[in-house]
Amino acid sequence: MTTDRNAMIATGEVWLVGAGPGDPDLLTRKAERLLNSCDVVFHDALVGPGVLDLIPAGVRLVHVGKRSGRHSKDQKTIDALIVEAALAGNRVVRLKGGDPAIFGRATEELEACRAAGVTVRICPGITAASAAAADLSLSLTLRGLARKLTFVTAHARAGEALDLDWQTLADPQATLAIYMGKAAAAEVSRQLMDHGLAGHTPVAIVENASLPTARVFTGRLDLLGIMATTAIGDGPALLLIGEAVGMAGTAHNETGKMDMLARP
Ligand code: SAH
C-alpha cells in the first residue's frame, strides 16, 4: 500500500464515496484515504457530522443535501457541479450516505462524468439495512425462513401512489428492507397484508441507525403504520419486515427501544 496520501485520486478524477450510515467508525479505510487526498467534497444531508469531522481542514466542503421536502439542489445541478469541479482540475469526492450504489442517484452522476470524459469510480459503503440489522442484533437472512433479501424504496413522488409489485414483495420467505418508507408505512402495511402477508409478521423501524441517537421499534406488520407515526424525530428511518426480524436481539441499548407488541 502506498504511503503517498495524494496517490488515491488523480487530478480531475471523481470518486463516488459511501459514507456509511453515520457512525464514523463504519467508514471504510479507503473512504477515509480518499477524503484525505481530495480537494473538494460534495456531500449529502445524510452524511453524519462525525464523518464530516474527519475531512481535513484544507478541503473544500460543498453541501448539496437532499432530504425529502427540502431539496436544496436538484440532481442535474449536482451532476454539473461535480463535472465542473473535475474539469477545473480538482480531485473530487462525492460523499453519499450509506452505499452510493443503493438508492443514491449514482447512475446520473456516473453518466454525467462519463459524458464529460471525466474518470469516475465508486468506493462502496455500509448501507442502512446493514446498520439497522446490527442495531437490532439480527441477521437479515435466515436459513430456511428468509432466503431472499429485498432492498426496496417506498418513496413516492408528491401526490402519486406507490407503484410497487406488492404480490412479489408479499413473500413470507423474504426480508424486506424498505428505504425512505416512513411516510408510506401505513400503505406498505395495508398492501402487504392485502397481498397475503400475515398481520403478525415481525417488523422493525430503525431510526438513525448506527448513531448514538438510534431508536429501534419492533412490532408486527398490522401495527406498522401506528409505529411509524409514533416514531418521533425526523431522522432517516429504515423499515424491516419478515420472519428474520422476529429474531431481534436484546443487545441494543434499551433506552432507545420500544416494543409495540409481542408476537402471538
Ligand atoms: N445510499 C443510502 C440510502 C439512501 S436513501 C444507503 O445505502 O443507506 C435514504 C434512506 O436511507 C432514508 O430515507 C432511510 O430510509 C435510509 N437511511 C439512511 N441512513 C439511515 C440511518 N442511519 N438509519 C436508518 N435509515 C437510514
Structure overview:
The structure is a single chain. The protein has 264 residues and is α/β, with parallel strands linked by helices. The protein folds into 2 domains: 14-123, Cobalt-precorrin-4 Transmethylase, domain 1; 128-260, Tetrapyrrole methylase, C-terminal domain (Methyltransferase, Cobalt-precorrin-4 Transmethylase, Domain 2, 2-Layer Sandwich). The chain is built from 8 helices and 13 strands. A 6-stranded mixed sheet has the order 8-9-12-10-11-13, with helices on both faces. A 5-stranded parallel sheet has the order 3-2-6-1-7, with helices on both faces. A hairpin with a 7-residue loop joins strand 10 and strand 11. Helix 3 crosses helix 4 (106-115) and helix 7 (185-194) packs antiparallel against helix 8. Residues 251-256 have low confidence and may be disordered. The structure holds S-adenosyl-L-homocysteine (SAH). S-adenosyl-L-homocysteine binds at residues 21-22, 46, 96-99, 102-104, 127-128, 131-132, 179-180, 206-210, 236-238. It is an enzyme of class 2 (transferase).
